[in-house]
Each structure stands twice: as structure tokens, then as C-alpha cells.
Amino acid sequence: MRTALAVTAALLLGLTVTACSDDSEPSVSACKQAMQKQLQDAKDGATGSRPSACNGVDDATLQKIAAELIGSEVEKGMEDAVEKELGELD
User: Fold this and answer.
1) What string of DSSP letters covers 21-86?
2) Longest distance between any two alpha carbons in the chain, whole Å
3) In this predicted model, what pLDDT tens digit does every residue of 5-53 receive, in sequence order?
4) Domain boundaries of the chain, sorted by first residue
5) pTM surpassing 0.85?
6) Exposed, middle or buried, 85 (CB in 10 Å: 0-12/13-18/19+)?
7) What span, in angstroms and rounded, lies between the C-alpha atoms of 35 and 65?
8) Mean pLDDT of 73-82
């Protein structure tokens, strides 16, 4: 689990160093959805790059989104681990 989280974190945080910009106003919501999909794909072993929906989103916002997504995954992993351990006690 730690390796998967580390890979995921690296992929998501790597998005912030490849910033692109265009003239349209970026949609933070669309970017977050694209990053969530990429996170799910990364858990299945896929590699990715900056989603086009994130073009124009500033690095601070990308880092915030990545932190939120990774935090949610860590929390879910912890809950699953606790449930598994409690299930083994029964």
C-alpha cells in the first residue's frame, strides 16, 4: 500500500512541474475530476501526465487538489486496514 501511495503521490505532484497554460479560464472542478480518474488509473498501474483539463490551473491549486486526493486515499486505506484487523479479531 505504501508503494502505491508513493507512486500516486509522485504522479500527482509531478503534474505541478509541467504547467501549461492557454487562454481559456481553467475549470478547477474539471481538473480535480480528471486527477481523480488519473489516480484510479494509477492504482491499476497506468502512468499518466498532466490532464488537459488542468491546463491553466496554477501550481498551488494543483498541489492542493493532489493533497486532498492523496489524503482521501490514505484515509480510505487506513479505514480498510482497521476494518480488516477488526474482522480478523472476530
Assistant:
1) --SSPP-HHHHHHHHHHHHHHHHTT------GGGTT--HHHHHHHHHHHHHHHHHHHHHHHHHHHH
2) 58
3) 555 555 555 554 444 445 568 899 999 999 999 999 988 888 888 899 9
4) 2-89
5) no
6) exposed
7) 8
8) 91
